[in-house]
Amino acid sequence: MAPSHVPYVDPRCAICTAPAEASCGCEARALEVAISQAEGRFFSPMFMDVRSWVRARARDYILDYYREISKPCRTAYARHRDVIRATYRAKCPPEDPEPNYRNAERIYRKNIDEAWSLAVLRYPEVLDYFFSLVHISLPDDQDPVLQQPSPGRRRHDDSDDGRPPFNRLGEFRHRRRRVFEPKRSAPIPAFPIPPRQPNGQPAVAGRPGWPTPPPSPQAFPQQPQPGAWSMR
């Protein structure tokens, strides 16, 4: 500890060596640059992992959702073909069935396209949900990673004031990092299935009161295992 009679002197700028009274701002700008570079080194790999995690689960959900809402289309198409075939065999009226088959296929493809569009248009909602499951956990001020004294100091050394040990930053750098993990308490979203008309065509989008589909095993993340999403 410095003697009380020694005056405090503001150091010069570490970047341009201007006197402290000049308030040049070089150090503040350099700090912002250093923070941006550190963020890139530290968070870029984590964000890539999170992005891959969200992308895979959102894609699985959309595909499951599409399969669910396209089932009535396939059922209606199969029944339509059965009716055409039965009518042709009964010859009432006797006519070439090919135009009817082509018309049935046209309707089926139109319904499939609508079902796929309904599913794909839900990507923003689904992505928001899965991104909302990710959170960042920071160590508190009393965490040992911030409080542990450096080696070589005596237990009752007056210089040990609980601040981070500057000569051990290299050891702590990879010991504990920020943690990304799914929230266990997040509610499951209700993504409605559009009701189908008797002919298999989707009803008008936006109709209230749609039922909620049961989640498939691939639609939502499982409970994370211990240490999941821990970046070490």
UniProtKB/TrEMBL annotation:
Q: Where is this region: Disordered?
A: 141-232
- The organism's superkingdom is given as Eukaryota
Q: What is this protein called?
A: Serine/threonine protein phosphatase
Organism the protein comes from = Cordyceps fumosorosea (strain ARSEF 2679) (Isaria fumosorosea)
